[in-house]
Design goal:
By secondary structure, the chain is of the alpha/beta class. The chain has 5 helices and 4 strands. It has a 4-stranded parallel β-sheet with strand order 2-1-3-4, sandwiched between helices.
Length: about 120
């Protein structure tokens, strides 16, 4: 299976990256091909270049796994692309239902019901 991981890159701590890499390693040991943005997307190009690389990798994926960070603009941008492409998602962390309307609620519903 091909998996794209939506996660923070720009402000990621080493602890966060270690968690991402451990998760990725497990997926790869299980026989999956994983696109991990801080490792597999060229971060030295322009913003549109990064978005284009991620778009192509999301299009090529079977599933998108999300490490949700509500303050990450890139996370929201990539989630929008995955939504338009009607990708199956797996919530890996920090997307809990809230009392008010929120992206977290959208993610919880998307994972449970798929894209409409």
């Amino acid at each position: 299976m091909k998996i794209f991981i939506i996660c923070s890159v720009r402000d990621a701590t080493q602890k966060y990256r270690d968690e991402l890499e451990a998760y990725t390693s497990k997926l790869e040991r299980d026989g999956n091909t994983v696109h991990l943005p801080h490792r597999d997307t060229d971060q030295t190009v322009t913003g549109i270049g990064i978005c284009t690389q991620n778009k192509n990798a999301i299009m090529d994926s079977d599933e998108v796994h999300i490490f949700y960070n509500r303050s990450s603009q890139g996370t929201h941008f990539d989630m929008g692309m995955a939504f338009v492409l009607k990708k199956k998602i797996v919530l890996v962390s920090t997307a809990q239902r809230t009392a008010e309307k929120s992206f977290q609620n959208t993610l919880v519903d998307w994972e449970a019901n798929g894209c409409i």
